[in-house]
Amino acid sequence: MNRPRTRIQQKNSETILDAALDVFSAKGFRGATLDQIAEVAGLSKPNLLYYFPSKEAMHSALLENLLDTWLDPLRAMDPSGDPITEIMGYVRRKLEISRDYPRESRLFANEILQGAPHMRAAIETDLRALVAEKTTVLQAWMDAGKIAPMPPVHLIFSIWALTQHYADFDTQVRAVLGPDHDPFTEADTFLQLLFRRLLHVADT
């Protein structure tokens, strides 16, 4: 029977995972080292290994809850709600994740760029099933003439691309905009306009 962790042990574990998130999101799994994580955490390498036996264990711990962070905004899309309101709410929630969880977004992006070696099973089951469920909802709204017709899965892909860009390419975005711009306020305004026009059913 495992003993519950003390407050200090819990704090150290959280410090290590926070440092690992910094390193993994910047360098990817392959580029990250235990020495780098230890330095960011301000702990010795043996101390790291007391809590997590390997770099893989830290990476797995971070990825465990990551997919839920990604799935929850799409899960919240209500089939019984107003289609435009529900889709625009999804766009806003995804942009907020890029703003509030940029390291997690980059961790996810790095994992995908490396072929999703640690998340492929979850992507091919949980994520695929949820996207299939929501594309059915989107298609029903299109068939009812409530939103403009388009390939529903590519609508979801475009929302991912246009919202996650602001986290995954944060350095480029801020370099282009300059220090006086809040990219997320401007992005929210633009994306709301863009997708509302895309979804609008033209008068016949």
Automatic annotation (TrEMBL):
Residues 10-70 form the HTH tetR-type domain. One of its GO terms (molecular function) is transcription cis-regulatory region binding. GO terms for biological process: negative regulation of DNA-templated transcription. InterPro entries: Homeodomain-like_sf, HTH-type_TetR-like_transc_reg, HTH_TetR, Tet_transcr_reg_TetR-rel_C_sf, Tscrpt_reg_YcdC_C. Keywords: DNA-binding, Plasmid. Transmembrane segments: none annotated. The keyword DNA-binding applies. Residues 33-52 bind DNA. This is TetR family transcriptional regulator.
